[in-house]
Amino acid sequence: MAALLESLLLKKVDNKTVLDWLKNNKEDDRLAFREPAVTVLKQEFVPFILNFLRVQSSQALTHGPATPAKTPSRHKPAAQTQSFSDKRGSRSAGGGAGSRSASRVQLFSPAPSVSPGTEWDAAGQSGSFNSPPFTPGCSPASRPSGADRRSNQRINLGDYMVSPPDVQNSPSFQSQKARRRGGGSMAVGGQGKHGGWRGGHQSDERRSGRGGGGGGGGGGGNSRISEQASPPSVEQLNFNNLEDFPPVGSPISPPASKPSRRINPTPVSAERPHSKPKTCFTSTPFSESSGPSLIAEALEGPMTVGSPPSLQEERELLKREKTKRAQQVGSPLSSSLDPCTPTKSGLRVGSKVTPDLQTPCPEPFKVTFSLELDLLAELYCTCISENLVPNIFLELFFVVQLLTSRSPHTHDEEEQGSLCVGNTDVLERSYLRQVHNCVYFAVKVLENQFQLVSNLDKCTLRLLAENERVASFSPDLRDLLTQAQEGSTAKLSLSVPTFIHSVPFQPATDNRSNFGSDRAFHIFKKQRDIFYEVLREWEDYHKEPGWSFDPALGSRIRGMMSQLTSAGNHSHFARLFLKQLVQMCKGPSVNSSPGDTADADLLGMLGADSLGRLKRLEERLIQPQGVAGPCPPPSFPDHQEFFRDFLQAASCCQLNQHLQDSLCQQLLQLDEVSILSPPSIGEGEGDLEQQDEKQRFTSVLLLARLLAKFLGFISFLPYQTSERPSREIQEAAIALRSKSVPVLDVCAVLSNSMKRRRTILTVPWLVEFLSMLDFIGPRLLCYRTALGKLLLLYRKMLLGRCGEMCYLNKLLMVSVLGWLFQIPVIPEDIFFTNEFTEVAKLEDGITNAAGLDCIPLVDQQLLYTCCPFLGEFRKLLAAFVSGSAAKSGGIIRKITPHFCRPEGHAACQQVTAETAGGP
Amino acid sequence: MKILKERFPNHSQSTLLSIFSLEYQKRIKRTISRHHAPDAIESHYQRYLSEAKARPTAPVLLELANEVDLSPALMARIILDRFLQGLEGGVPSKIVLNSMLKEPSLIPDQMLANNIYQCTINDCCYGPLVDCIKHAIGQEHEVLLCEKLKERNLSFLDENQLRVMGYDKTPDIILEVPIAVEGHIVHWIESKASFGDDHSHRTYLNEQFWSYWNRFGPGLVIYWYGFIGELDCQRDRGILLKDCFPTDIVTLSHAAQQDRLPQEPE
User: Fold this and answer.
1) d(CA A430, CA A423)
2) What's the average model confidence in pLDDT over A368-395?
3) CA pair distance A486, A474, nearest whole angstrom
4) Is A185's pLDDT higher than 50?
5) What is the pLDDT of residue A848?
6) d(CA A725, CA A721)
7) How far apart are CA A757 and CA A844, in angstroms?
8) How many other C-beta atoms can be found within 10 angstroms of the C-beta atom of residue A551?
9) Which residues in A lie closer than 8 A to residue B236 (C-beta atoms)?
10) Do A511 and B216 touch (CB under 8 A)?
11) Which of A121, A716, A833, B56 could in theory staple to A329 by disulfide, Cβ–Cβ 3.0 to 4.6 A?
């Protein structure tokens, strides 16, 4: 892969060939180039490209949350160029053209097929490889090998998971946090949480990547700083060996896809001579030594700090070992490896805008490598357009991050120049290190992906159009954006604090004749009142600090459940519960007609509902907007939280069963709902009817998504674990659970929907359902198949191609699917392996079926309601604006004008002021 | 009462009376347990017996009640209860007790019957007579409410109709088509022919109003004799308090003309 990219950059391979290859999904996935022996798999090349860009830009991106940013490559002092070429030399001797691939930090670890000289094998086979960089006191030779090896690996991997928080403590990581995927910081917050493991092994990956550079490549002999600065290599373990690397990993180990990331050079310093060989990983915080040293590096830049001699020795040793291995192992192994998709973004990341001291103003004439950047941009855009990336919005977010990047370096331009000259390796050049280049690249991509961009909300478009960087790099793009902004209608759907309504008493279902006995009737009378009492109490107190659900309400709820059980009233209560859930959580825009939403918004803006506005303002002030990234984990916002907590506190299996029955039935009914296609064009009345149908579709879709989420929640509740279970437990659980019938036949629902071309309704709610899966769920055949199907569907759903589906319909599907592939419980390797797709196949639609997919049902409002994370673009851009304002002496506006309108800021601010002053 | 009227000339007599009655009830509730203790009952009973013997024509029981600061009607109930226990041995049924209080001529002891009767008619807050008055006032206001609604051409279901339909908890009135009062949606109306003080309002909220809300959504409570202003704090939550029939009523048909209601439910 690296070789392919290198050849491209050197113009040895025609760009067009590669682009065509990327676009073509019919033929073989392989591309043979240059020499017949070297072929590249698409599913390896794409992650490589993504990875390459992340690494390239890691230095420039110091703000915003984490797109799957990777190991930050530090300064590359000019002095090191030499060592780089040394490294190259030594490596090419070992492994030939492809070998370099392994020397880079890879977001997606490459399959070794192309790189005969990679170190995966070395790492996989020598257990000793795991530890040395960590433990100066423990020589590689002292590492047990053979039978003990595996268990050691486990321990190490597990230890990693514990370590990130430690690392996080060090101040120097504050800035890195932003660059890293959210996982790391998530681990700080609470490691036991969903996805905590991911956080763990992400940073693990990051650090080990760096260490690998030293251990595996030619960097071993260099000073410590060079270890960090060089594009580190990733040790590839033998993924194929399922014994060694279980696919989903033990509770302490991340999935097999990443066993390689275990080497961390940071703690290896002279300051920690007392580390114990094994236990030190968990017991000794890394931060003590790593923090300051990293800061030092960051500050001192090219000034190199010498690395401890012991480390150097080890690296040397390892290097030798590796080279040896590399020579021994020449043939690529099978391609069905598990590359990683560590593109998953976790929870919110703290730092929003790093206070930069000096950000050079990006200027077009300072761009270097523009030809290569063009080429990279084209490659990258093709990957995006062809849905070869797991989540297009994640990539778009990354691009916007590049656009708004604030490279803290201004002083090293000369150095940059020398780098350009000195660095002969096309892949080692820092294409995206300078902010000029980043912006250039970002603008290129945005231009190319304009159609996608133009479907973002009005405010985002406005912020983009007003971005001075866009204006200076591409006035054309700015004009297009301005135009698009005028046509755009979507506003971010604010979650309107809805007035709670109770479920009306219906004599038909609620009077005495519906109950088995007077007693049951009277008990239910009380229970209805208790339920609302609990709800009201929750409303009043749940936002107060120190209040928590279970201690406050748990016993009352459980008392109620035992009463329910004794009276056999579960079905009645389940109905009440669901009705109330729907009433409160169905979504903000459902009942109002499209014309009204604007008015209501305007009204709200002017402070009609002043109390609500004030509250929102207060929330803003208390909790300034953080940019959370485009892939938030599944959540239960607003009142949904009450219902989730209620179910958890009640933990009443009878109630859950009744709810499941009811949810399933309602969902399948909703899924069958008939929406009329638009009548022939030209009828005035048709428009209105069409609006009604669209409205109805919106309502049905939002309702189905809500119900599906709760069905998923209840169904997978018994299997939820805070951590990913060990491989053994997983195997046992899979065997056990594959015998029982799943609550919902997702595959059948999906197939049926595809056949009847109703995926636009079915897929969004199925995604909600599947987002509630437990860790083992995705491995069960039924869900594996469903996920595989969804994956195939995603790949097929190319936005750029005119298909029968409307653009926004496709955009919604791509967006929700992309989100699903990024959430913690979905295995990371899903996107770049065959494991899921091999069991799935796509059904062709029945040609004469008048499905929903071809009707323009989705509008921006619905898109943003279903995918609130699209609002992150706006936040990122707004943060950039406020950041620049701060820099130029302005005030940081904590309240971003979320209702940015063409009228301008003045109006916005005025409104804000009024609202604030009002009540 | 006269003193009260002089002190608060702005309030109607019935309001003052209602407040007085509530305060009196509160005081009685605080002290009643003292008189329900078995030894207290016994001592009251013995005092009544000895005094009645000494002065057969005097209203001894009434005097006793005033002396120990207990509502005469309640004193009558305690003594009667004790008397019946002595007569039959067991605990007398409530029905018998109540009917005797209502109709003292049923009491086998002539002297006791006289005393009981004196007590019940001389009690302004307790006893069958007061209950009867209260009930009548309540009915009167319910009828008043119904008439007002009819005047406004609002269709509604009353309590009795609702019971027949099998509702488990019923306010006085359910509007078949909701209205808006001062910008708040009203589905039901409860009439209270009393003054709304914090104590009684809290009790009503827990036992009645929230239950109505839980079943019928937001509604209106009319305290015909007024209420403490601060209690009307649940408006946004769906319980509106008024001291008279509202004048600012918006019906749905009007709403259509006047743009949307500010609080139209979503």
Assistant:
1) 9
2) 82
3) 19
4) no
5) 58
6) 8
7) 9
8) 10
9) 499, 611
10) no
11) A121
Q: Are A490 and A548 in contact (CB under 8 A)?
A: no
Residue of B nearest to A587 (CA): B266
pLDDT band at A9 (very low <50, low <70, confident <90, very high): low
Is A295 in a helix, a strand, or coil?
A: helix
DSSP letter at A717 equals G
Mutation site, B157, B161, B214, interface A, largest A CB count within 10 A: B214
Residues A385 and A277: their CA atoms lie apart, in Å, by 49
- Listing DSSP states for A729-787 in one string gives HHHHHHHHHTTSPPSS-HHHHHHHHHHTT-HHHHHHHHHHHHTT--SSGGGSHHHHHHH
Cβ(A143)–Cβ(A131) under 8 Å?
Answer: yes
**How near does any CA of chain A get to the CA of B211, in Å?**
6
Amino acid at A112: P
Q: Measured between alpha carbons, how far is A588 from A342 in angstroms, rounded to an integer?
A: 34
Look up tokens 């912020």; give the residue. A463
Full-prediction pTM beyond 0.90? no
pLDDT-derived band at A665, boundaries 50, 70, 90: very high
Of A500, A504, A529, the CB nearest to B210: A529
- Written as six digits, the tokens of A523 are 């008990």
- The tens digit of pLDDT for each residue in A139-182 reads 333 333 333 334 333 333 333 333 333 333 444 434 343 334 43
Q: Residue A641: in which H helix or E strand, if any? A: helix A640-650
Encoded amino acid at B40, one letter: A
pLDDT band at A593 (very low <50, low <70, confident <90, very high): very low
| H-helix or E-strand spanning residue A893 | none
How many Cβ pairs closer than 8 A exist between chain A and B?
A: 61
Q: Do the chains contact at B262 and A513, CB–CB below 8 Å?
A: no
Which among A646, A677, A466 is positioned nearest to A574, based on CA atoms?
A: A646
Closest-CA residue of chain B to A528: B214
Digitized pLDDT (tens) for each residue of chain B, 266 residues in all:
677 777 777 777 778 888 888 888 888 888 777 777 888 888 888 888 888 788 877 788 888 888 887 888 888 888 888 888 777 777 777 787 888 888 888 887 787 888 888 888 887 778 778 888 888 988 898 888 888 888 888 888 888 888 888 888 888 888 888 888 888 888 899 988 888 888 888 888 888 888 888 888 888 999 888 888 888 888 878 888 888 888 878 877 644 444 444 444 43
How far apart are the C-alpha atoms of A512 and B165, rounded to whole Å? 9
* A479: CB partners within 8 A, 6+ apart: none
For residue A260 the two structure tokens come to 């390689």
Nearest residue to B115 (alpha-carbon basis) of B123, A23, B217, B31: B123
Residue with tokens 């599906």, as numbered in its chain: A708
Cα B76 to Cα B72: distance, rounded to the nearest angstrom = 6
Residues in A 606-625 with any Cβ partner in B closer than 8 A: 608-609, 611
Region for residue A397 given its phi and psi (left: phi exceeds 0; alpha: psi -120 to 50; beta: otherwise): alpha
Q: How far apart are CA B265 and CA A586, in angstroms?
A: 14
Q: At what angle do helices A781-796 and A746-755 cross, to 10 degrees?
A: 30
Question: Best-predicted range by mean pLDDT among A394-403, A812-821, B54-63, B126-135?
Answer: A812-821
Task: Retrieve residue B266's tokens.
Answer: 């979503």
Q: From CA A813, how far away is CA A806, in angstroms rounded?
A: 11
Contacts of residue A453, defined as CB under 8 A and 6 or more positions apart, other chains included, come to: A396, A446, A461, A464, A481, A484
* A665-671 CB contacts, 8 Å cutoff, 24+ apart: A666/A578, A666/A707, A667/A704, A667/A707, A667/A708, A667/A711, A667/A744, A667/A765, A668/A749, A670/A700, A670/A703, A670/A704, A670/A707, A670/A765, A671/A704, A671/A749, A671/A753, A671/A758, A671/A761, A671/A762, A671/A765
